Amino acid sequence: MHRGKGMKFVGDSRIPAVRKPNIPKDYSEYPGKTEAFWPNFLLKEWMVGAVFLIGFLCLTVVHPSPLERVADPTDAGYIPLPDWYFLFLYQLLKYTYAAGPYTVIGAFIMPGIAFGALLLAPFIDRGPERRPAKRPIATGLMLLSVASIIFLTWESVAYHDWDKAKEQGKIREFIPLDQAAPEYALLKAGTCISCHGGNLEGSASAPSLQGKDLKPEDIAKIAKEGKGSMPAGLFKGTDEELKQMSEYIANIGKK
């Protein structure tokens, strides 16, 4: 272009008239900078993964996972608690509109709508912008989801009885009882098993009856009159059966 003389166009043979697809060059054209995916790169990834896997396995051997006591189907007072990443769903099922007859709504429908909306967000908001302010649908759904999860998790942690959960999860030492013994049938008839556990080892709702320095007459009195949260009149048998059951409980673990 010359000043004051107008504009002149010059052709350049280096610029193709037809655009070619953007195909990356072969890695061999960059010696020392790239490598073949198979087997070079993938083999290195596997080796690094194997080192971390072995380290993790060694950690699990040195520090075993903390386990609770053996599951007891007769312990009606046990309150199961999920891991921390499911606490928000656990809290959701406590509300009246998502519990009881509406459990299906809280367990399937509401989480399904929430996660479905997150899955559909990229297809609904297909704009090229990367800034959150320019993508209101995706940003709004994500912020709403994160805020809901944080709030429900906080509610679950703040209002859970952690002392009771810690106590009910303790591994209790107990002597297995002979379930074929006639005294065991009396324990079941007197509803002792449903509260104190299948081996009278205790539960979240009732203390252990094993290893206690209890006299048969004290046990019989509690069975008839109740104590604390235990109501009176739970045992419906005869006095002879009550005596037999009380002596059986008092002598557990004694020679």
Automatic annotation (TrEMBL):
Domain Cytochrome b/b6 C-terminal region profile: 27-154
Domain Cytochrome c: 177-253
Keywords annotated in UniProt: Electron transport, Heme, Iron, Membrane, Metal-binding, Transmembrane, Transmembrane helix, Transport
Membrane topology per record: Multi-pass membrane protein
Positions annotated to bind heme c: 192, 195-196
Physiological role: Component of the menaquinol:cytochrome c reductase complex.
Keyword Heme: yes
Entry similarity comment: Belongs to the cytochrome b family.
Name this protein carries in UniProt: Menaquinol:cytochrome c reductase cytochrome c subunit
Single Gene Ontology MF annotation: oxidoreductase activity
Segments passing through the bilayer: 46-64, 99-124, 136-154
Entry annotated with the keyword Nucleotide-binding: no
Oligomeric form and interacting partners: The main subunits of the menaquinol:cytochrome c complex are a Rieske-type iron-sulfur protein (QcrA), a cytochrome b (QcrB) and a cytochrome c (QcrC).
Family annotation (InterPro entries): Cyt_b/b6_C, Cyt_b/b6_C_sf, Cyt_c-like_dom, Cyt_c-like_dom_sf, Cytb/b6-like_sf, Cytochrome_c550/c551-like, MenaQ_cyt_c_Rdtase_cyt_b/c-su
GO cellular component, one term: membrane
Source lineage: Bacteria, Bacillati, Bacillota, Bacilli, Bacillales
Cell compartments where the protein resides: Membrane
